[in-house]
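Escalated from tier 1: magnesium ion holo job.
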Amino acid sequence: MVSFLRVFKFAFQDIARNLGLFSMTIFILVLMLLSVNTLWSMDVVTKEAVQVVKQQVNISFYLVADASDQAIKDLTSYIQSFPQVVSVKVVSRNDVLASFETRHQFNTDVLQALSELGSNPFGPTIVVNTKEPSDYKTIMDAVNVPQYQSLVEDENFQGHEDALDRIQSITNRVNQIGLGLSILFAVIAFLIIFNAVRVAINSQRIEISIKRLVGASNWFIRAPYLVESLIYSVLSLAITMLIMYFAVHWLDQYLTIIFPTGFSLTNYYRSHMLYVFGIQGVVVLVLTVFSSTLAMRRQLKV
Amino acid sequence: MISLHGVSKFYTPEAVVLKDINLTINAGEFVSVVGQSGAGKTTLVKLLIAEEKPTRGKIKLGDWDITNIRSSVVPFLRRQIGVIFQDFKLLPKKTVFENVSFALEVAGVSALRIRQVVPPVLNIVGLSDKAGRYPTELSGGEQQRVVIARSLVHRPKVIIADEPTGNLDSINTTDVIQILKKINEFGTTILLVTHNREVVNHLRRRVITLADGQIVSDEEAGKYVI
Ligand SMILES: Nc1ncnc2c1ncn2[C@@H]1O[C@H](COP(=O)(O)OP(=O)(O)OP(=O)(O)O)[C@@H](O)[C@H]1O
Ligand SMILES: [Mg+2]
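Tier 2 regenerated the structure:
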């Protein structure tokens, strides 16, 4: 019991008297954790952006005005049978008319012409969403068969092929940059940690040899360092979480403008907190314990 | 107190550092070990504190047979012997008092007992008034006296010192040797490895001379002969 309390006393005393080294190590760990979180957030945001872009890409089939309900149903279930299709929505004639009117509400000429017709000239519209933007061609070709020629008046693909290509290439580039940054950050983090470990090992080596010569057992030498590792991990993680909390709040101002889906990083972090920071906590703990074990391994071999 | 029977030490099969050493040191003796650089003096010390194991032979220290001592038992052996090295440093972030009490803390000695034991020991080495200082605030001689104080707190029956005065000027050397003599008068066995001719000649105690890993002379009231 006495020695158990002493282990904690030594750990805290060591930290208090090495405040310079302590704060530098914490600083490095926080930097590393922040870069991990930056990458993590970037990944989350990119995935969400791609998702949003994909959802905005859809195909509209404008049907003839006298299309029968049965014909519409047939076509809908035919389109739905393709595995690439995520959703099929039928916009009724009245809704098409209503949205046309809102779109042209300040154009009296158009509205005049419409009322002179006396009846709704629009047919229903089928809006199709596919998993991948590149799937649209399959669906268009599938509908472009004689069977449906009399039914479909016109078709429209929102965002043309070149726009899609651009999106695809931007997505690819973002992924490439993300990967490049990940590797860069990983290398930097490794170098920083490697160096910090080397400094720590050198300062610990002498200490450990002294402690051994005055009769400290291996447990008594190792335990304070393990307690310190734990303190390093918990503190650096806490600081990182605090910084991330403010950073994510600040970013969300902009994200809510970009994303119509109401996506927010704060919400993401809140709902994935245990997972995101749990993994990071374990990694930091393993790292700090590993580095001090490395330092002690040679000295404790006797 | 200390006995070696046919002890040899090779670091590699070619590098024979100690050859067939037979040696007995009785309780209360003050023995100096001299010899040229590379003669194997430090290796002998390392065998005695179980930092190295003998390649051949048998070593006993007090009641301990340390020839093949288990590593988990080594810390207990270390608490029975005082160890002093030329460069055996102090813990830099601990005060004089804490450095000395550390040797007791690792053995699980109570805080009350520590407060009783440490001050008299600091008094023996004349550092009572510097107990709160850090090692960097001490002279080399004072630091070595703290190391001696630390080696004394367990009231060891044996003190093993490897060139404890190697880095000290003659005044500090005299101080350290005086302290060792005083400790020896209390009944503690002392094994002193030294290069210092004056120290050996002044002591006029038993001198063992090593050369090429062998004992070439062993004299009571000996002199420094190399
Ligand atoms: N770990 C080791 N591995 C291999 N050889 C070693 C090792 N330690 C010491 N030696 C060799 O053993 C021999 C004796 O070394 P030792 O340190 O015992 O000498 P010494 O008498 O203490 O010398 P000095 O007076 O310079 O301190 C030397 O030749 C040295 O090179
Ligand atoms: Mg030596």
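The interface with chain A takes residues 49-51, 71-72, 74-79, 83, 85, 88-91, 93-94, 102-103, 105-108, 110-111, 150, 154 of chain B (CB under 8 Å).
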